[in-house]
Fold each of these.
Amino acid sequence: MSRAGDRLIGTSVLRREDPRLLTGQALFVDDVEPAGTLHVAFVRSNVPHARITGLDVEAARRHPGVAAVYTAEDLGALSAPGPVLVPPPPIEGLVFHARTPLPLARDRVRHQGEAIAAVVAESRYVAEDAAERVGVDLETLPAVVDLDRALDPDAPLVHDDLDSNLAAHVRQTKGDYEAARAAADHVVARTLRYDRGVAAAIENRGVVADWDAREGRLTVWDTTQAPIPIRNALAGLFGLGQSQVRVIAPFIGGGFGPKIMFYGEEILVPWIAMRLGRPVKWIEDRYENFFATTQERGQTHESELALAADGTILGVRDRFVHDSGAYDPYGLTVPINSQCTLLGPYRVPSYESEFRVAFTNKPIVTPVRGAGRQHGVFVIERLLDLAARELGIDRVEIRAKNLLAPDDFPHDHEILFQDSAPLTYDSGNYAPLLEEAARRIGYDGFETERGSARAEGRRLGLGIVSYVEGTGIGPYEGARVTVEPGGMVSVATGVGTQGQGHFTSFAQVVAEQIGVDPSRVRIVTGDTSEFHWGTGTFASRGAVVAGSAMHAAALRVRDKILAHASEALEVAAEDLELAGGVARVRGAPDLSIGLGELARRANPLRGAVKPGTEPGLEATAYFGPAGGSTAAGVHAMVVEVDPDTCRVEILRYVVVHDCGTVINPMIVEGQIHGGVALGIGNAFYEELVFDEEGGMTNASFMDYLLPTATDVPYIETAHFETPSPLNPLGTKGVGEAGAIPVAAAFAQAIEDALSDDAPDLEILDMPLGPGKLFELMREAGALARDAADSDRDDA
Amino acid sequence: METAVRVRVNGREHERGVEPRLLLSDFLRHDLGLTGTHVGCEHGVCGACTVLLDGEPVRSCLLFAVQADGHEVMTVEGLADVDPGVLDTDGVPDLLHPVQRAFRETHALQCGFCTPGILLTTVAFLDENPEPTRAEIREALSGHLCRCTGYQNIVEGVARAAEMLATRG
């Protein structure tokens, strides 16, 4: 039990949700199956770009066990493009062409996996049998596959009502880059690429819907990161009151970004349930997930860094093309994150950044853990590495020299961030992070280590890079805190949870104020009938924004408890303390009253209450930050590159990070470990491969390789805490941090490992993979077998 | 066109008529209501659907239910002797199987979707190799995909479970 004065915040409380998850009792969407449920299988395009010239569903409709087959024609007014979920920020001169998908394609398919028909049957097995009997005639059109050529004047058009594949054009500047460049002693200019990957949550998407016509109530279980916006959208589409729609995001098997989207299946499954008057279920399979769930990455940057001879950054110019895929329903969040995160933890006096977003005939791009930030980090960190090499400056020194100093905060970068607020860093202390990471990875002694390994024929290299992460953005979240008559505290919030430990860290925030053990706090997330204001879990904002709302609600409940206890114990509220589930008199702990008893007194069944008072020990509060809080960190790694096989093994990995006040260190470290693993996958193992016609060639876990336990190293972590002034807890987000700088560290480490064999080798494309590394090493003459061959030739 | 399947799951006998093409994973989840077994890829790579068949870890998405006829299956629901109704109370962790307890203590799960399969692999692995090294643990886990944890705390969880099982004798 907690005692007065015990801090819960900052403690590694074991997770409240684990017993349920560990015993198979946690409810996931696929576990929901009301009696009489029908199952949906979708017929999807197997080509990236085509005209639909014929659609024959009669055979499928007649298939035994089939309840219905729907195509775009059956949808009536629902057959309309979906919303743009995140409107672009008000940047001057911004061009944005919104093109969002229909629930079911009509006339034209623009990416592989686009849904064309929905088959509804007694079981998924039967639905899939019948789906094969749907006749689809497709007239294949030339596809836009290569991002670098998507904006060429002669490129085929993804949307032929536009005169090019340009989806957006954005330019943001600060200072005068041209002047900086003219004054520079040195300019580093390169083309850098970062290609696509998938989020690959182990749970695929799914929707179950049940329409109760007598109650006039639609219940939807959905693997979404944003249950409240989904509820509001469904109510609007179906002409129902918002309170008639209940969306439940129960336990979600990993989100990582794509589950924030609003997909056609989320409209169709409830619509079919209402139409047929039976519960309806669709669970995405893994193959569908590779096409129908959104993806990320795909940017080509033309970048240059202008420096003084001593390595001081004078300015950056970056022009990039961003691949949006076939549509752009999530606005410009990803490329704006790239644009803003490029500035990193550095003082950059002038910045000229311009990007074009291109439509291509590939699956849709929306945020995936990191959400474009890793591209920006990759660009600036690579340019700094090259500058260090060319200027003969130590790579840690060039970073240290350019870091923002503690008295630079708040630091205004003079451009707009994804939330439409100015890109201002709230607080930070960056130099100690870099020093600590260098110390922990053994930077000072590394040249010796590398040399002795080299003497044994081993290639060791070190990478060390910095990053920042804009987190915890608005608009707001809310929470309701209630002390129940049994003494339990129940808390409801609108954000959903996908494994971040909300049931525990939120319980800690509330328990700290109310003086109960966290095990006495029951958290409900992601059920719109429990709490229906909020936006969702994205942008590393759950702990910051919902956590702060919870803190505010808990403080109000605390005041109510103290007021009632003061009356009951006839003691001034100032003389009371809350601990161990009771209110008690300071210095006389025997004079106490339980929270449950106070809750009962606060909700009398008879008698008069004071006018103006509210019943119960309950409060609802909201929190909206003035702007995002900026977390920061440094990753360092040591790798060994096998010059025969091009296998890269990570020998050591260090993360030093600062996400402000840490609520639960165990959970924060877990978030970092997972982020790093995803970053390692994105940097080395994972790449979506499209053939020339735009067909995806590796849409399975056998061909698209996620890192396993033998690929991810032990990760050492260290925390620094620079509280954010923007929220009462002082926290900053951490959910995406781990994934952001990995590729940049990886590239630097591999170059370092091969620096004796190939001093000019430059890694400018991610993901790398052994195949690409092989090509680079061959070009640079760094392959062991080539060296052996040339030895033989010499002999 | 149904075939009879008799199978003992978590110590309980079940007899059902099933279509020959019904996957064991679907049989467990839908016909028996044991939804703790999760399906992540349906092509035998992710390992989430792992159950024990006569004590050996198998991917239930790669087996037909009829192939389990006459065999014994253990799913995650069979590990702890816990009444689901009391799951939220403080005492429950003590009732968990040591591998489950170890996973909780080491924060070896986040979203928990891949966890049931990993627990069952771990039970079988520690049965065969009660004192594994960290490298052996990583090797044993390499047939499972987890996207949340980076595996580090799962490795710790397995190591902790080995210690717990050893002291339990």
Amino acid sequence: MSAYRSLGRNPTQILQKIKESLDRLNEKMDVMIEIQKNNQKGSQDIPDVLDVMTLLSLPDHLRKTAVTISRLDQATAEEVAEQTKRARAVESGYLNQLVMMGYLKKERRGRKAYFYIEK
Amino acid sequence: MGKIVAFHSYKGGTGKTLLSVNLATTYAGRGRKVCLFDLDFRAPSLQTTFKTDDAEYWLNDYLNGVCDVKKVLNHVSQKHMRKGELSVGLANPSTEAIRDISGKDRKWEMKALGRLLALKDSFLNEMEFDYLIWDTSPGLQYSSINAIVSADVALVVTTIDASDIEGTHRMIHELYDLFDSKTGILMNKVPVEIVSSQTGKRKLRKQFETIHGLPILEMVPCFCDVLRAGGTYIFTEEKPEHPFTKIVGRIATKIERF
């Protein structure tokens, strides 16, 4: 609540802050759901290898991102977005989900974040 | 920009190699720059068709990261072509190589997928090929699924055999629908009496398009002349006036517009 208090009494700012928090929460929930789905399929013994069988098990939105990274070898969210014709912010979310699921690695170089498959 | 076309099927012996070889030579005959890859690592066959015993590097070497893909290309234009350019990339037919590729793990298959996906840039953009045609192994194997995922157009060759129809149907809905490749069906070895009448042909086409939910690009009758040739020569080159050659020509035109 202290963060909201510092915003004063502007309800738009408070609502905006709440929306941002909910978006972040949703993103984390998506990742948890994906991880849980994979565990339910009994894939605990399968290593996190982004091969074609793993691609088949991914939901459509993540599969498109994962295939693009496989083709580009390594790329920023912006470069992936150029290929998939989706928004940079959307690709950034999907790439981070793939990192959390253990399929991609992320490395910061200067101001840019590069995503790649560990080989 | 050019296209990567992958030939695949649920069962073996449907005519993938026959159709891919003849399609590649048809495009080259039309003045296109074409490359044909043998991605059937468990039963390689293009070295027999093109009688190339002098291959120094194989596609196995490219996928193993041993050499650049350019080293794998065998130029066969002088032997077979007039107008265009045709190169072939061969799979190593030695028992040792087949055994080696059968024992690869998931991590290797993941790298192989990356290398196949990279061919889109190297062949179609840098080397300016018009067509890269892949003859894959049948069924749901790593090498063929990797190829389908990396291709722009996937052509499923099927026959009227009941188990082939059922398997193809399942494969399309559980595999092809998940990826972005444009897919078409080629019905091969269709009994001549079915396709000899327009009504019979229309009926069969409608029936199969309903089953698979995909367009039937062509229905190729079972030609005894083609079977008799036994893959000893490239049929469309030797028999330019044969109905089979005309059908392959129509397939080539349809893929161009696909």
